[in-house]
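JOB MANIFEST
job_type = single_chain_structure
chain_count = 1
residues = 87
[input]
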Amino acid sequence: MNDKLVVVYTAAGQLNAQVIKGLLEAAGIPAVISQEGAGDVFGFTIGPLGLADILVTEEQAAAARDLLEAMKHGELETEEEENPKSS
């Protein structure tokens, strides 16, 4: 098994990074966040110290990128959209 991690997304700050990480993990793709220590400690969201990389294994990078592209284009559905309630 190849455990090499690759960057699939760069977010502005930890909060945005956590949202993307959660999206990937909900789809069964384990992810980790890497951010410069000072940026994480001080909560920067702009500039180089505010950037947080989302990494996944090389094997899952293509699936992660496909999911992120679908998100970018508004192609993801919520559970409510899949199963609308009748009134």
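[summary]
Residues 74 and 86 are 24 Å apart (CA to CA).
The helical segments are 14-26, 37-42, 61-72, 79-82.
exit_status = 0
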